[in-house]
Amino acid sequence: MTKTYHVTTGGKLYLAGEYAVLTPGQTALIKYIPILMEATIQANPDYQLSSDLFDYSVDLYPDKQYALIQETVSIVNDYLVKLGHTLSPFRLRISGKFEKNGKKIGIGSSGSVIILTIKAMAEFYKIHLSADLLFRLASYVLLKRGDNGSMGDLACIAYEDFIAFTSFNRQKIRELIAENELLTVLTADWGYQIRPIKVTLPCEFLVGWTGTPAISKDMIALVQASISSDFLEQTQIAVEQIEQGLKKADQELVSAGLKRAGQLLEKLHPAIYSKTLQDLVGATKNLTAIAKSSGAGGGDCGVALTFDTKSSCCLIEKWQQAGIELLWQEVLA
Question: What is the pTM of this model?
């Protein structure tokens, strides 16, 4: 009987630094969200790739809908051959959608699909991949596709942890990819930092979903064009305040940092804070809690930290009254 292997992966949400981290050397705080996607993989006479996002399956012949999965398989195959493995065709099925009522939730990303595919192939070929190598392979896939995201989502999903991610120069690594073979690129110094955050401050992490999509790619480009050196400098200070406060159990420092990070986003571009996101943040008034938008903004999700049980309950109730759904709740310490 053919053995079937199962792997899972989750999603992520930005606590702070989401726009600044697009600039090399800037840091963002990103929280792993274990709302899971699953993949199964087993030996098969021919390659067969399927996802419950689509109503058909493919092999490795290029298909627009499956391009991300196909390119990931191709790059991991290249890696395996360079390690001396003999390739075997397989059937890969990916299931799980980061959706609610047919609407996309911004906790997942193309990164979740890439990492899930890589993990499935590693399990199939019985090779161990460190979290860092998993991150690099996944980043390689996106960089080769011309993606210019920070890769912070990949770092968080690969490490399955709450992390501080300092971004690298993607153009420099893209040039490295163009001029060198895969193993050389994977072992080069990329210049990023990934630090898991050990939270000692007693608090809860809450995610509120507005039910509306985040702003469009075109609008994101307009927001990015508004980024100044002062915004980067002030955001970095806020991110460092939050990280240090969480590590040293300093509630005032965390609250000040999150408030600063949110205000900086508000000033960056009016598209970031929709009316519902303003309500999401405003609901923390008179509570021992602090909230801000998360990710691109304009809709989708916001995040909050609460510092006592009563505030958590009151905030959830206020969100519900404003039409905001509690998507995730987790005690951090």
Answer: 0.96
